[in-house]
Structures
1.
Amino acid sequence: MPALPTEEQVAYMLAHPDDNLIPNIIACTSICGIASIVFLALRFSSQRLVSSRGPTLSDWLLIIGWVFFAVFDVCFAMTTRYGGGKHIIYVTDPRMLQILNLANENTYCYAMAFIKLSLLSLYGSVFTSKRFRYCVWAVAAVVTTWAVSIATVGIFQCTPIAFGWDPTIPGGYCFNYGLVVLIGGIINIVTDLTILCMPIPLVWKLHVTRQKKLLLCFTFAMGGSACIISMVRLAFALEVGSTADGSWDNIPAGLLSVVELMTGILAVSIPTYRPLYRRLVEGPSWVKQSIQNDYASGNRNAEYHRSFGREGPRSVSVSAGRVSVGTRQGISVTNQIELTVHTSKGGSWVRVPDEE
């Protein structure tokens, strides 16, 4: 329960008027906000190299998550106008500061939820096992319930709500919101670890080299960086909503929340960066091979494309259930197989009659 500062606490605040975390808030929100935009831009640039289709379900969920993150980032930065980053006795507008804090608590929950749902959607598009799909839906349900519950409890942590910024209201009270944050943080970490471990057994069954299996596991495990930040953030949980100097004591948890969400956006995007990495490393004459699932439309047909060199004379495109037409002439193979003989005449492929 938030309380009025004691005489000793007030004396300390008066003795340290220069204590200021505002530069930390501005620097963190600015850097993380710009970085999140870069991560999204790299994700879509990488996907454009191997597919001309629009955003997938995973992309849309991540975009929604980024919107919530952007609102959280801006609101957290705006708290500095009303005393955020300073001791409580220097707060200029307690009401606006508390309203922004409530907005931060809600947008954080929904941003984290949509980021996780984006990764789960990506899992569902890559792995088609029915049992694995049930696990994806179960974890998605837990994540959604967690977000809605914590966000709702955050709004009504004080009765009346105005008691959150005016503890002198007669009859008002707040429950121990720090305990709620602690429990919510533990559930958040458990779902993080669950999501990280889910694809490992399926990756290990793939018919690829051991090196590629380890690389895939490492790629998915990059999300562990956000999980580590969540664990560190948990150390500040009990202070949230219970300290008498919330405008100062809650700032470290807020900074970690910004970094945590930014890292989550990066972790969800890293598995999509491989085409861009190969394009940058191997240059214009790269040899690219990609297996894509048409998970945006629910079509599980795989598409395989390979191009040879910058000025290669031929290309091969194989797709299940449809014909893929390229810009250059070459050999097109579908699931409707017909063996024919072709010869190159005048720069184009010409079918040789059977009688020849």
Note: Residues 14-272 form a domain with the Rhopdopsin 7-helix transmembrane proteins fold (CATH 1.20.1070).
2.
Amino acid sequence: MQRDPAPGVRPRNRRRRITWGVLTLVLTVLTVFAGTYAWADQKLDRTVNLGALPDQPPPDKGTTYLVAGSDNRQNLTPQQRKALHTGNDDEGSYGNSDSMMLLHIGADGDTLVSLPRDSYVTIPAFTGPNGVRHPATANKLNAAFSLGGGQLLAETVEYNTGIHIDHYAEIGFGGFVDLVNALGGVTVCLDRPIVDQASGADLKAGCRKLDGRESLELVRERHQEAGQDLSRMANQQRFLAAVAHQAEAPSTLLNPFRLYPALGAGIGTLTVDKNMTPYDLARMFLGLKGISGGSGHELTVPIADANHYTPNAGDAVLWNMTQAKTLFGELENDQPVTIGTNDAHSDLNGGQRSSAVDT
């Protein structure tokens, strides 16, 4: 006659199998994560050497990112430029930058400060790609990027703000086509129709999923609104948050056939500093997403005159230096921001601080 197992043996064996199953699952996840991290780390285009910047301010409390949106078309064929309504590159050796933002991640919460590309600033003396030495000059902030790329842009921002830049990330909006398509599209809500012949945008009001081409048209649109560049800058911020939201959705993270193409396309849109890691990038995108979702502070650098006449650069944006110095000092010392948040409208639904995203 077969005897029953001793009391407690079967439950103990079951618990042992469950324990080993959980450990195996954890080890598998960690192995996949480590492999993905190493793969992403190798693919990063580390170009900007922040450590080589002259007269760099001392490190501040917290972590400050300089995020630039590049509209460089050098990697697009003439046929692609025509189809995507990008036009031609005529803005200097490095193209132009549509938007510049300072993202400060600190103990008192995160802060995103938009720097209009037409800001009238001092560009420090620099040596151009052809070896010619250029003296310091007053010009639009975008000119720093056009003449010297991310390296000169970072130096110019540090020079005019006194803030130490810990990391630099340049997002090529032209690469959004592949990224958004790899994510299966990104859903945004528009509070008004967008029609812009220059960018090719022809989008109806309401919530809809945009493909890569439509997304590029949206982030490049600026001719419909009175704010133009300020409006486009706000749209780009919120669209980056929408992309980050979609990228962390279960439909992306749990689907390797979507995750890896999206990671590859996303990394392919980036140019970063030499010390940037995938972890640093994750902090940056989560910070952008959190701020647009209402967590933290979002504002434009205080402006004294949005149409300031200059003798060499046409109309430019003149900062309110009294308020700007207060803001920069608060960021530098990781203190609560006392300057009011930006109330300028965006084309993306402004009832919430972020656009609606289909997850």
Note: The longest strand covers residues 97-106.
